Amino acid sequence: MNTFTLVFLAALAASLLLRGGLILRQMRHVWQHRDQVPTAFIGQISASEHLRAAQYAIARGRISLWNLVQETVILLLFTLAGGINWLAGLWLAVAPQLVAEAGLIVTAILLSALLELPADWYRKFVVEQRFGFNTMKLADYVRDVLMQGLLAIALGLPLLMAVLWILHRAGSQWWLYTWVVWVGFNLFVLAIYPVFIAPLFNRFTPLDNDALRQRIEQLLAHSGFAARGLYVMDGSRRSSHGNAYFTGFGRGRRIVLFDTLLKQLQPDQIVAVLAHELGHFHHRHVWQRMAWMFGFSLAGLWLASRLLDSAWFYAGLHVTYFSPGIGLLLFFLVLPVFSLPLQWWLAAGSRRNEFEADRYAAGQTSAELLVAALVSLYRDNAATLTSDAWYSSLYDSHPNAQQRIARLQSIAVLSKETMT
User: Fold this and answer.
1) Residue 4 to residues 10, 47, 79, 331: CA-CA distances in angstroms?
2) Measured between alpha carbons, how far is 114 from 83 in angstroms, rounded to an integer?
3) Beta carbons within 8 Å of 189's beta carbon, 6+ residues apart
4) How far apart are CA 125 and CA 238, in angstroms?
5) Mean pLDDT per segment of 10 residues, for the chain of length 420 residues?
6) Per residue in 401-413, is it b (16+ CB within 10 Å) or e — as a string?
């Protein structure tokens, strides 16, 4: 057996066991603590609400396990079972190499999406429905899937053809030219998303609450954040979960509030949530994440350039067709198997950024207001209050509820001591 085949299987097994083990650990931990509301939340979240959150976490954990197993099976079918090799043979027999490689990649993406669609439907229309969060109609779901597919074709296919052309024409430096195109593509999508892409899926209307608008504008002015508009999105059309986000960059930046969030929180609490988002802007977290993303993509493409000329790489994944486009597809298929340490590191950095944004929000409004907003969101979104620490270290981009509230409460105590 090819040495790389053994390495790949060992890494895949380790990833599967570790990820699956952490999910099971989380489910067990949450269920063991289902009957006792954590001290910090007593009087704010009832025992029945805490139990409901635990049940919701368990249901989502089962879906995560299913997705993990399904992704592993799909990867093995594509690689060691010969799926990519068979598809490549079909495409190369009927089309020129560049077109065949594009067709192969599109086919692999389409098959993966179709195979994952039932689990996505089950999550929305069974689990989310059971816990009262899903408000989407089946027609809207079908429309979203079709629209996402059309967007992927309209935006992704030209990018794919450009990358494949560079692969075949740019020589040994293809990875650098591809990276430049990739960076430009991402910046382009970020620029057009608020105005052209997001409205395809949701309706955005200017915030018509004058009092809230004035308070938000005062916060923005104090923070030095310039936005072209405050909008309310009809999030209730798909889910009862509440959220808010900033989107765009430069003069195209805008603030979006879900209509569900406006129903869940008091005006002061909404301002505190937005102050948290402004904390990310103040600390330049978005630009830092983009820099890291572009840096990792550059390193990844460089690594891919070393593998695409290596016969052992193709043979190790049971592919007999030696082609740059096929090699690039194989690289991105197996990359997640070997990138687990990176995911751990990125999750830790994200949680650190959330703490920084919380601290900034506490300074702009108050820690008590942000705590009240978070507790309300935890309750209304059935977020678990008792996450397992090991699970959170890999899977959670935000600090767990108890850590986050404890940090904010300590900030509130220090603030009061300073004032006195």
Assistant:
1) 10, 52, 12, 13
2) 15
3) 155, 197
4) 11
5) 92 96 97 95 95 97 96 97 96 95 96 94 95 94 95 95 94 95 94 90 91 88 78 92 80 83 92 92 90 95 93 95 94 94 93 95 92 94 95 94 93 67
6) bebbbebbeebbe
Strand residue runs (E) in 45-164: none
CA-wise closest residue to 261 among 135, 170, 381, 161: 381
Q: Which strand (E) or helix (H) includes residue 230? A: strand 230-233
SS3 call for 193? helix
Q: Which two tokens stand for residue 254?
A: 């805008």
| Contact (CB, 8 A) for 242 and 380 | yes
> Which residues, 6+ apart, have CB-to-CB distance to 358 below 8 Å?
276, 279, 370, 404, 407, 408, 411
* pLDDT single digits (tens) 280-319: 988 999 889 999 999 999 999 999 999 998 999 999 999 9
Q: Supply the pLDDT for residue 252.
A: 66
Composition of the chain by helix, strand, coil, percent to 5: 75, 5, 20
Q: How far apart are CA 356 and CA 350, in angstroms?
A: 10
At residue 220, the pLDDT reads: 85
How many angstroms separate the CA atoms of 354 and 399, rounded?
7
CA distance 292 to 357: 19
- Using only the alpha carbons of the chain, give its radius of gyration: 24
Q: Alpha-carbon distance 60 to 381, whole Å?
A: 13
The whole-angstrom separation of Cα 358 and Cα 365 is 10
Q: Which residues pair with 255 in a beta bridge?
A: 230, 246
CA distance 263 to 349: 32
> Terminus-to-terminus CA distance in the chain, angstroms?
72
What is the side-by-side strand order in the sheet with 254-258?
Answer: 204-206, 230-233, 254-258, 244-247
Asked if 263 contacts 233 with a C-beta cutoff of 8 angstroms, the reply is no
**CA dihedral of residues 289, 290, 291, 297 (deg, nearest 10):** 110
